[in-house]
Amino acid sequence: MTTAGDRTPRICEWISLADALRHFASHEGRTQTQQHIKPLHWYVACRMVLEGGFLPDEIKPRPPFVVDRRGGNHLLRFEPESATGSEATVLGGLKTKNVDIVVDKPGIGPVLAVSCKGMTGAFRNLTNRMEETIGECTNIHIRYPALVFGYLFVIRANWYPGAADSSVVGQHAHTARHNDVAIAEDDQPVEAIVRFHAALRELTGRDGIRADPSRYEAISLALVDMRSGRAGRVFDSFPPFDSPLRLERFFKVLYRHYDERNVTSAPNLAGRNRRLEWSPDSPAFRADVRPELDYEFRRAR
Predict the structure, then answer these.
(1) What is the per-residue pLDDT across 276-299, written as a single tens digit (0 to 9) for each?
(2) Which of 278, 274, 299, 272 is nearest to 77 (CA)?
(3) pTM for the predicted model, two decimal places
């Protein structure tokens, strides 16, 4: 993330979740440019390769990896020059739509997608996001009912004005207006965020291709800490530990649904659709080339 200016084209970088969320917490440019959330796109795209076992060429934006095949082994190599920053344009049932991260299998089409959204303030308007959220999902599922769709929503956890240790890089927490406060004086999310969580719970858990097209297969809601020394960390106590919207469950659900629809239920195509396992000898696994990660590589045994 060394390029300057919101208008500068950017390409997918291999980045940790901590760095992606720290950028989201501290970014002070216009949110309309999407530069505050782009690193989260890159994190998801790279994770789809390393943990998910999808080929880099199948993903947009294309992650910075190259696959070398030696015999029956797949070696993953980090190559920044191979990355791109372009989003996929998906032809939905009602209109075309740019989707943040898309896995597209040759000869089959889009099979997995993730939409990333972020909100920095004005949390009383969260419910206004629901129409957009439902519409995007319905539009894609009408044309691709078997597509596994995930929705990843991050919110700046601005503490109430005057809270101890509330400062971060920039002025977000110090200048938080009442409408921009996410964490109240009792260290719990404000009512608007609790209601938003309840609404999102009704939109997740789509478990079959004949199920409601307005529901996502997986949704995650994460509050991003804004306090000094903690900026970019996920607020751990919300959503509740039994919530289906916990971030640690998000990718597991996506992979499970992909496997059910494209491998288990399609044995004749299993060889083409099965997610790859990377050779333990992959150069990308070396500690000196990779950031600190919060997930495991999908290694061959």
Answers:
(1) 999 999 999 998 888 889 999 999
(2) 278
(3) 0.90
